[in-house]
């Protein structure tokens, strides 16, 4: 496969200031890089300031764009408000938010302590609605037509065992996306979401596909398109959803997963049937049909 290129034309996010939570690592970092390349001012925030500062330095050198790293635990409202006021001070205003911060790990649910469930739900659900609420109030007060992109998962729809706190929290984020897309549409505020399939990042792989598991299962085999996602593919979609090109779209959840979620199709197990078997099956079904066509049983 050829390397995936940036999709939008230069300057597509010019004059926009976008906050990316969890923007120091993984997919958040890849989105931040592309937003900078498209001319946005970017604010990245998460718990680890040293990681954010290293990312900011790297991306600034690479893109020549303006990026501000700020420490913020998305479970703390005063820290979120601090990020918003520091962003306004640095760039004049805020136009976009990516709720990308997350916590997650695989575990049998009955082995989780109450705190282990809380930690994931609080980062994902509480963090997303705290940030959304704080920015929404600012946008409504200042008549700014802001845009929010929530990073969800495909199992928000289907549910999934062994990641139950994450599934509960991400499903809540989806409900918020659709509910507020309607309620805040009169203010011109848009909310959309991406449901990514597997995109290799250290954060996700260490906690969801650890070596012990990777030795036994081939994840690529579960994916109809037989590969994991490229970060630029997700960054392209994210930039589109934050740009004015998507200004007629709100309340939408776009799945980007190589077809992985379609595995649930009831007859998809037939992918292993050979051509010879298909010929025999067709013959058998036709023979069954014959008597009924001739008026028989
Ligand atoms: C296709 C892929 C879909 C991907 C989706 C994603 O979201 S990928 C994104 C992936 N990226 C990330 O997740 C990035 C951020 N993630 C993190 O920082 C950590 O994974 C965190 C979420 C645990 C928070 O860390 P922290 O330092 O704030 O918390 P802490 O260490 O204090 O633990 C709190 C409680 O959890 C308990 N506990 C922990 N592990 C396990 C376990 N394996 N088993 C059982 N329990 C476990 C721990 O014992 C404690 O409970 P206790 O004993 O006190 O009752
Ligand atoms: N990679 C994948 O295959 C998939 C990822 N996703 C979603 O994509 C997003 C990015 O995940 P990914 O890049 O893979 O993983 P990462 O672990 O790299 O990203 C998670 C980010 O969240 C930040 N974070 C965690 N806790 C907090 C907190 N309390 N306050 C603020 N920030 C916090 C972390 O920074 P810090 O530690 O500094 O706080 C980190 O930068 C997540 O929403 C994830 O659920 C969804 C489906 C698949």
TrEMBL record:
Its main location: other. InterPro entries: NAD(P)-bd_dom_sf (IPR036291), Peroxisomal_t2-enoyl-CoA_red (IPR052388), SDR_fam (IPR002347). It catalyses: (2E)-octenoyl-CoA + NADPH + H(+) = octanoyl-CoA + NADP(+); (2E)-dodecenoyl-CoA + NADPH + H(+) = dodecanoyl-CoA + NADP(+); (2E)-hexenoyl-CoA + NADPH + H(+) = hexanoyl-CoA + NADP(+); (2E)-tetradecenoyl-CoA + NADPH + H(+) = tetradecanoyl-CoA + NADP(+). It is found in: Peroxisome. Gene3D superfamilies: NAD(P)-binding Rossmann-like Domain. GO terms for molecular function: trans-2-enoyl-CoA reductase (NADPH) activity. Pathway: Lipid metabolism. One of its GO terms (biological process) is fatty acid biosynthetic process. Its EC number is 1.3.1.38. Keywords: Fatty acid biosynthesis, Fatty acid metabolism, Lipid biosynthesis, Lipid metabolism, NADP, Oxidoreductase, Peroxisome, Phosphoprotein. It comes from the Bacteria. Belongs to the short-chain dehydrogenases/reductases (SDR) family. PANTHER family: PEROXISOMAL TRANS-2-ENOYL-COA REDUCTASE. Participates in chain elongation of fatty acids. Catalyzes the reduction of trans-2-enoyl-CoAs of varying chain lengths from 6:1 to 16:1, having maximum activity with 10:1 CoA. Has no 2,4-dienoyl-CoA reductase activity. Interacts with PEX5, probably required to target it into peroxisomes. This is Peroxisomal trans-2-enoyl-CoA reductase.
């Amino acid at each position: 496969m050829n390397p995936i290129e940036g999709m939008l034309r230069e300057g597509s996010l010019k004059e926009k200031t976008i906050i990316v939570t969890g923007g120091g690592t993984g997919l958040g970092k890849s989105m931040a890089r592309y937003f900078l390349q498209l001319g946005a001012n970017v604010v990245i925030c998460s718990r680890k300031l040293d990681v954010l500062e290293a990312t900011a330095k790297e991306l600034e050198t690479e893109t020549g764009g303006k990026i501000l790293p700020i420490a913020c635990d998305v479970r703390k409202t005063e820290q979120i408000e601090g990020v918003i006021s520091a962003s306004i001070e640095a760039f004049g205003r805020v136009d976009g938010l990516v709720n990308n911060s997350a916590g997650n790990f695989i575990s049998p649910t009955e082995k989780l302590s109450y705190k282990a469930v809380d930690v994931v739900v609080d980062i994902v659900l509480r963090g997303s609605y705290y940030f959304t609420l704080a920015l929404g109030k600012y946008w409504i007060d200042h008549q700014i037509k802001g845009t929010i992109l929530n990073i969800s998962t495909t199992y928000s729809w289907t549910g999934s065992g062994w990641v139950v706190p994450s599934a509960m929290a991400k499903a809540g984020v989806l409900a918020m996306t659709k509910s507020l897309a309607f309620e805040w549409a009169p203010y011109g505020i848009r909310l959309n979401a991406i449901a990514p399939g597997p995109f290799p990042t250290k954060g996700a792989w260490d906690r969801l596909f650890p070596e012990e598991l990777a030795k036994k299962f081939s994840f690529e085999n579960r994916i109809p398109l037989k590969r994991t996602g490229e970060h630029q593919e997700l960054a392209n979609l994210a930039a589109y959803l934050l740009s004015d090109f998507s200004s007629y779209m709100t309340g939408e959840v776009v799945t980007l997963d190589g077809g992985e979620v379609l595995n649930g199709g009831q007859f998809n197990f037939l992918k292993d049937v050979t051509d010879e078997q298909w010929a025999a099956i067709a013959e058998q079904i036709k023979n069954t049909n014959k008597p009924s066509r001739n008026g028989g049983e």
